[in-house]
Amino acid sequence: MNNLTDVPFGEELRATLGAPSRARVLDSSPRSRVWRVELPGGGPAVVKQLVDGPEAAGRYAREAAALRLAGRAEQPVVPRLLGTDDDARLLVMELLDHRPPTEGWEVAYAEALARLHASALTAPADELAALPAWSGPRDADIDSFLALAHELEATVPAAVRDELDGLVERLGRPPLRPALLHGDPCPGNDLHTPDGIRFVDFEQASLGSGLMELAYVRIGFPTCWCVTAAPAPLLDAAEAAYRSAWRGATGTEPEGDLADACAGWLIRGDALVRRDHRDGTDHLARLPRQDWTWGTASARQRLLHRLGVVARMTEDGTNSGLGGLGRLATEMAARIRARWPRLAPVPVRRPE
Q1: Smallest Cα–Cα separation from 46: which of 200, 194, 183, 203?
Q2: In 10 A of CB 10, how many CB atoms?
Q3: Which of 6, 92, 151, 316 could be a cystine partner for 82, CB 3.0 to 4.6 Å?
Q4: Is the pLDDT of residue 119 over 90?
Q5: Each residue of 54-103: pLDDT tens digit?
Q6: DSSP 251
Q7: Residue 266's closest CA among 278, 284, 252, 250?
Q8: b/e per residue, 141-153, with b = 16+ CB within 10 A?
């Protein structure tokens, strides 16, 4: 390419869609190049190219497969995929009109997320085979979380290790009816259009339990720059909307337990850092001596919020047999507030 606005359209795409014109570079992550273009007879479109780098081919394959699967949804939940070039790792999609989210956006978000998840259930096996299974927390996450509890001088109930072993085992079971998981369904990857919410950026898409992503709203968007803590009535309404939309699309109830999903995000240290920092470092071990800011909250703020969520969800001891973890989460939160009394709650609203 001669300059940043040269879009690498190959001959096959040009034959199908025509030559792009009026190309304009859009903001994107370092892992991709994105342009807004005009297509002859087709109007504006978005072109995304996955650039050379670690796992670029895999990220492209995931995104292309996820967009095709999600395109099956009766009500659109993703941009229409207009064309692809596998050799160039290039995706051509319709341009969507994004508007600022309205108050209470979490409800429509959760409803759209359910329809996205359900889109995999009618797909043929060969299309599903293009996506990997979701990967949950592991034994090393348990070890790191309990080591942090000891570092904070919290009393670890005797049952907690067994509870966490059971949690990891449950989250590791593939669901009977795997959902299409976005992989990073964060503010910024949800476009609020006049026709409803559409999701973009499927480089981390996988197949698994939809509750792992429904948990994002309550646990605070664990893989995202933008952490928020919506009021309890809004959370309840969002989760009810998800379950209703899932039943409407599938005729079944969602598999799994939301308390399990939230607890799974709590013990993952990698959910305290950006994707490019998820390199095997024990980030929970860093936290007593170092805090760092990512997006709308610091690592300690994120952890404190998640501890509170899990404590509240397990306080009666009936959710997934995680009563010991709930008591531990309550004490760890108290220790963190005592050690770092100036920690503020995570924001209630997402930034404009």
Answers
A1: 200
A2: 13
A3: 92
A4: yes
A5: 789 999 999 999 999 999 898 999 999 999 999 999 999 999 999 999 99
A6: S
A7: 284
A8: bbbbbbebbeebe
* Per-residue model confidence (pLDDT) at position 143: 98
3-state secondary structure of 278: coil
Helix axes 299-313, 323-339, angle to 10 degrees: 150
Report how far residue 219's alpha carbon sits from residue 259's, in angstroms, rounded to the nearest whole number: 10
- What are the structure tokens assigned to 307, written together? 């501890």
Alpha carbon distance 169, 51 (integer Å): 36
Burial of residue 131 (number of CB atoms within 10 Å: 0-12, 13-18, 19+): buried
Alpha helices in 3-138 (DSSP H): 11-17, 56-70, 105-118, 125-128
Q: Look at the block and give the residue holding tokens 């990891």.
A: 168
Spatial neighbors of 318 by CB under 8 A, at least 6 apart, are none
Q: Which residues of 32-56 are buried (b: 16+ CB within 10 A; e: fewer)?
A: bbbbbbbbeeeeebbbbbbeeeeeb
Q: Which residue has the tokens 């079944």?
A: 252
Residue type, 239: E
- DSSP reduced 3-state for 210: coil
3-class DSSP state of 5: coil
User: How confident is the model over 6-30, as a mean pLDDT?
Assistant: 91
Residue whose entry in the numeric block shows the structure tokens 């939160």? 333
For 296, 319, 349, the CA distances from 344, given in Å and listed in that order, are 11, 28, 14
Average pLDDT score, the chain: 94
Output the six-digit token pair for 207.
Answer: 């197949």
**Residue pair 266/306 in contact by the 8 Å Cβ criterion:** yes
Q: How far apart are CA 102 and CA 69, in angstroms?
A: 28
Calculate the dihedral angle through the C-alpha atoms of 215, 207, 276, 214, rounding to the nearest 10 degrees.
-10
